[in-house]
């Protein structure tokens, strides 16, 4: 038995009567009556544990906690558990980490304990504001919907976010724990000590904590590369989302948010990632020194109280006015409101010949709804380099402006790079002249452009092509150099653009596949060979290679998918070794790919071994999922059909595995027809057992494969016989949009094929 609370945003009112608003701060006296064999935890230390009897004469424990500091209702918390803890005191702050007894005994929480005190001290020293509580409990909950919650003095986590198994030799697990712990500890200042006035400024909590989580993580794991990870995990994912017209701005007016449904929807990538990205940009143009000084003044000014974003701007302005180090083109409020109060972000267009930069909102030009012109303008800091040497920061504060320093004549060979190392939250569209120069530079000397800027340059141009600003051929020109690219995080992004996951199963049916295979394998072989040697000879050498742990799988999966013989051989070698000795561990980093392709090139022997290991009682949840995936990779139809039959059997699988199996099979090139036939044949049984959920998943997956009118009709017939009328209408609309997407995709693939035809031998 276990009880744990999660009161953010508006659930404190369900636990005790209160004015449940973040600005109505109060002190809390908490007392909990509970079973004596359990321990009760709350925000403050327990000051008394006594006994009482109820009317039936049963004995209860009563734990009374010290009066809390002045705080918001949503941060009050309690846990009643029979966990063990490990403890250490850092600067008078007693830190305890609680978890299930077995996990504590096995040392799974030692890493978290080692870093918690260090991160606390790091934040105290950096922000120059001390932590006001005498103790901090971190609790690892076996099941927790929120991921983690920063309750003041009683921080709760999903178990997996806090546990580091000594057998995981790899930094990526440590990095994940360090990032999550730093995020929650960052909140002890941003959110708990100073809270946003109301939820419309939630980014003051989440955006700042999401910025500091990376500083804290790098402090305890210095081998991680801050700018690469921040750009890859925070900035790029939100740039991909933050361009829909309906998308909200970072700071909304209060009257636009009502009802707790829309409160929950504020906990999204705009609040977290865009908030952190804007903070990164702000810190960049202020300099970190002044930015932190301003934050200290903001924290001291609003301790035990509430603030809105204007309060933050005021404190930053005060620090700037007291110095004459930083010159800004406008007030901090004017600059920053252009980023937080408008939705979306700008794309900058540079004309090299005239030195003109113009800005407009980045929107999908191909989409009909985006034809209206939006006249949003931003005040944009531009960090830039010319020919590899960094230049002084420039500002674009109107829709377009001439920068004589950026003018380059046709005769010179100079190249210009804007937004160096992603100091700003925007994309850049270069003219053909500059792009040709950058493409040539990449082929001759890729390291002349910093890694994050290479990532950005290529990601921007693919995004621009996708939204109709430039032709896809323009983006492809920048991939010619890739044989000289040794950064996995860049490869990962390129593969996401060239081989989106929803395309893998259909691409093999097109004439573009052999061309892509030849073009990509030629460029992938250097980086593939580098890692293949390490996998065969010394996989432990990759212990500190963070991106290898996160992205090597994608690189190997792509090499095998493209039919690289060595990749298929390597998979079979490692899998055979496992079949001969089940104690052997296939390298964690490429396990999924190895098992999938061994089953694919093997026959029933390989498949049956995977099945046997799946049913092995020592398989973890991760093992099981990996094997469910691997078994769907079979190439022989009868194996796939048998797998789906197994999936229906109650005795062999729990019910939630069935939809996972169907999902995995449907996304494979061999499997999708078989899965579709299987679903239609067994529909009465499936629908009775799994209801509408399963059907929706299956139909969404099937729609990727709808390319011809005949296929549309086939699905249509199925809809007519199985769906209620209202669902039929929705499903039919989905089909129509799937068909037009597929038509557009076909045009894209034709363009890709034509370009590859000309360039495949370069």
TrEMBL record:
Pfam family, one: ERAP1_C
Cell compartments where the protein resides: Membrane
Superkingdom field: Eukaryota
Membrane topology qualifier: Single-pass type II membrane protein
ERAP1-like C-terminal domain location: 415-737
This protein's UniProt keywords: Aminopeptidase, Glycoprotein, Hydrolase, Membrane, Metal-binding, Metalloprotease, Protease, Signal-anchor, Transmembrane, Transmembrane helix, Zinc
Domain Peptidase M1 membrane alanine aminopeptidase: 111-339
Site (Transition state stabilizer): 272
Cellular compartments per GO CC: cytoplasm; extracellular space; membrane
UniProt cofactor(s): Zn(2+)
Ranges of residues in domain Aminopeptidase N-like N-terminal: 2-75
InterPro entries per the UniProt record, alphabetical: Aminopeptidase_N-like_N, Aminopeptidase_N-like_N_sf, ERAP1-like_C_dom, M1_APN-typ, Peptidase_M1, Peptidase_M1_aminopeptidases, Peptidase_M1_dom, Peptidase_M4/M1_CTD_sf
Primary location recorded for the protein, binned into one broad class: membrane
Binding site for Zn(2+): 183, 187, 206
EC number(s) recorded for this UniProt protein: 3.4.11.-
Active site positions, chain numbering: 184 (proton acceptor)
Molecular function GO labels: metalloaminopeptidase activity; peptide binding; zinc ion binding
Co-factor remark: Binds 1 zinc ion per subunit.
Family named by the database record: Belongs to the peptidase M1 family.
Name by which UniProt lists this protein: Aminopeptidase
Organism: Ceuthmochares aereus
């Amino acid at each position: 038995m276990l009880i744990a609370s999660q009161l953010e945003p508006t659930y404190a009112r369900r636990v005790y009567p209160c004015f449940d608003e973040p600005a109505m701060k109060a002190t809390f006296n908490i007392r909990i009556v509970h079973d004596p064999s359990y321990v009760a935890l709350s925000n403050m230390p327990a000051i008394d544990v006594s006994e009482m009897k109820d009317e039936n004469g049963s004995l209860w424990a009563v734990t009374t906690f010290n009066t809390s500091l002045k705080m918001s209702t949503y941060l009050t918390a309690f846990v009643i558990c029979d966990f063990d803890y490990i403890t250490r005191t850092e600067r008078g702050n007693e830190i305890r980490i609680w978890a299930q007894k077995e996990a504590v005994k096995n040392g799974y929480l030692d890493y978290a304990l080692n870093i918690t005190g260090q991160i606390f001290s790091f934040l105290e020293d950096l922000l120059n504001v001390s932590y006001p509580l005498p103790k901090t409990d971190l609790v690892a909950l076996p099941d927790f919907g929120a991921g983690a919650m920063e309750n003041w003095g009683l921080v709760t986590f999903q178990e997996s976010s806090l546990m580091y198994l000594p057998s995981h030799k790899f930094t990526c697990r440590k990095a994940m724990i360090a990032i999550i712990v730093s995020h929650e500890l960052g909140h002890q200042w941003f959110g708990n000590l100073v809270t946003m006035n109301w939820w419309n400024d939630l980014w003051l909590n989440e955006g700042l904590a999401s910025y500091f989580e990376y500083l804290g993580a790098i402090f305890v794991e210095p081998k991680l590369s801050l700018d690469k990870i921040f750009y890859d995990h925070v900035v790029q994912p939100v740039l991909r989302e933050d361009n829909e017209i309906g998308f909200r701005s970072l700071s909304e007016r209060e009257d636009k948010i009502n009802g707790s449904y829309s409160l929950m929807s504020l906990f999204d990538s705009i609040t977290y990632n865009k908030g952190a990205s804007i903070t990164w940009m702000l810190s960049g143009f202020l300099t970190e020194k002044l930015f932190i000084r301003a934050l200290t003044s903001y924290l001291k000014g609003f301790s035990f109280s509430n603030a809105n974003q204007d309060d933050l701007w005021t404190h930053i302005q005060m620090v700037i006015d007291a110095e004459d180090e930083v010159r800004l083109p406008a007030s901090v409020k004017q600059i920053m409101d252009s980023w937080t109060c408008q939705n979306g972000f700008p794309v900058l267009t540079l004309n090299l010949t005239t030195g003109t930069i113009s800005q407009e909102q980045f929107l999908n030009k191909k989409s009909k709804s985006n034809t209206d012109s939006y006249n949003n303008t931003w005040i944009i800091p531009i960090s830039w380099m010319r020919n590899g040497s960094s230049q002084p920061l420039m500002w674009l504060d109107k829709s377009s402006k001439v920068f004589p320093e950026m003018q380059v004549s046709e005769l010179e060979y100079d190249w210009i790079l804007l937004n160096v190392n992603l100091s700003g939250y925007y994309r850049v569209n270069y003219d053909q002249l500059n792009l040709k120069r950058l493409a040539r530079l990449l082929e001759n000397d890729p390291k002349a452009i910093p890694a994050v800027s290479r990532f950005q340059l290529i990601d921007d141009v693919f995004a621009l092509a996708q939204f109709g600003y430039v032709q896809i051929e323009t983006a492809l020109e920048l991939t010619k150099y890739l044989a000289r690219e040794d950064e996995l995080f860049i490869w990962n992004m390129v593969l996401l653009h060239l081989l989106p996951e929803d395309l893998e199963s259909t691409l093999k049916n097109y004439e573009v596949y052999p061309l892509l295979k030849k073009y990509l394998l030629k460029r992938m072989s250097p980086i593939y060979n580098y890692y293949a040697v390490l996998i065969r000879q010394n996989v432990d050498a990759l212990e500190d290679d963070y991106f290898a742990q996160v992205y090597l799988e994608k690189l190997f999966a792509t090499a095998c998918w493209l039919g690289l013989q060595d990749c298929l051989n390597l998979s079979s070698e490692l899998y055979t070794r496992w079949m001969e000795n089940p104690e052997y561990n296939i390298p964690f980093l490429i396990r999924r790919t190895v098992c999938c392709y061994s089953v694919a090139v093997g026959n029933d022997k390989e498949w049956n071994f995977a099945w046997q290991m799946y049913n092995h009682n020592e398989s973890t949840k991760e093992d099981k999922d990996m094997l469910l995936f691997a078994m769907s990779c079979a190439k022989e139809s009868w194996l796939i059909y048998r797998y789906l039959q197994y999936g229906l059997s109650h005795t062999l699988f729990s019910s939630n595995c069935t939809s996972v199996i169907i999902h995995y099979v449907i996304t494979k090139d061999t499997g999708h027809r078989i899965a579709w036939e299987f679903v239609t044949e067994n529909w009465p049984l499936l629908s009775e057992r799994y209801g509408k959920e399963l059907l929706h998943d299956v139909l969404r997956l099937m729609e990727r494969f709808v390319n011809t009118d005949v296929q549309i009709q086939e699905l249509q017939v199925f809809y007519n016989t199985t769906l209620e009328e209202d669902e039929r209408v929705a499903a039919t609309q989905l089909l129509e949009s799937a068909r037009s997407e597929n038509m557009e995709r076909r045009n894209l693939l034709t363009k890709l094929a034509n370009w590859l035809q000309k360039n495949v031998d370069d």
